[in-house]
Design a protein that fits this description.
20% of the residues lie in helices and 34% in strands. It is built from seven helices and ten strands. The longest helix has 16 residues.
Length: 260
């Protein structure tokens, strides 16, 4: 079965449940502070919208388990559109499907879309060795527009962040075991891309005075690894665009965080 034949494939539905403990653990894992009581205190809790991504992580795993690609595939980019604020706890009915499958020649890019009443999320998965099936290539990366000078600040990760974030659902060994991370050319376990993305969104909310729970749109392309404990340079603009760097290396490109 060629990669292109997966386009439009239904990946099923699931009902997932969570409690306020799960939402608070997630907030702490992406960098919420002890004084941000409406992120960490159940009596005032407002759930971070990106927490929904942990509830939908099963969808790209279904596609992987079905044999659409192999273990060389990487998480290329992520988008999240928020429809309404998540409740403190409860159940969500999630529906997943494959969207477009793009032919990049040497690789295929699979879009996995998860929808529910509260959000729509899309994982773009870059799968080396699965291109060349005669499909459309898809749009190229947008040209870099001239922009005014960005606001520049620091996103400080912490040493225990990856092992803490693992408890929210993504237990891949490259985030905790040096032997596993060495297998992908990283001598030190790396931080989850979705954790870095959410931590950046939280930092932008603090900087702009927005409430973190009022995130309306989040997006980013994962361009490089982050090591827990890194101090990352954030450059962001008034329209919600941002870029995140580790030294001179861009680790999230084409970023966007918009608050209601």
């Amino acid at each position: 079965m060629s990669a292109g034949e997966w386009a439009g494939r239904d990946l099923g539905e699931r009902t997932v449940s969570y409690t306020h403990r799960d939402a608070i653990l997630y907030a702490l894992a992406v960098g919420a502070r002890a004084d941000e009581l409406d992120l960490v205190f159940e009596e005032r809790l407002r759930v971070l919208p990106a927490f929904g991504l942990t509830l939908a992580q099963w969808a790209p795993d279904v596609l992987a388990d079905a044999g659409a690609f192999d273990d060389r595939a990487v998480h290329g980019s992520q988008t999240l559109r928020v429809h309404k604020e998540l409740p403190r706890e409860g159940e969500l009915r999630l529906a997943a499907r494959v969207g477009d499958v793009w032919d990049k020649g040497s690789a295929a890019v699979f879009d996995v879309i998860v929808e529910c009443d509260y959000f729509t999320a899309t994982w773009s998965l870059f799968a080396p060795g699965f291109g060349g099936f005669g499909g459309e290539r898809g749009s190229s990366r947008p040209a870099v527009a001239e922009r005014p000078e960005p606001v520049q600040s620091t996103v400080q990760t912490f040493a225990e962040q990856a092992v803490l974030y693992r408890l929210t659902g993504d237990r891949h060994h490259i985030h905790v075991d040096p032997e596993a991370s060495a297998g992908i050319g990283q001598p030190t376990p790396i931080l989850h891309g979705l954790c870095t993305l959410a931590a950046t969104a939280l930092s932008i909310a603090r900087q702009t005075g927005a409430h973190p729970a009022e995130l309306a749109e989040l997006a980013g392309r994962f361009s490089g690894p982050v090591i827990p404990g890194d101090a990352l340079t954030l450059r962001n603009w008034e329209d919600g665009a941002f870029e995140l760097r580790r030294g001179e290396t861009v680790v999230i490109s084409e970023g966007r965080a918009v608050y209601a």
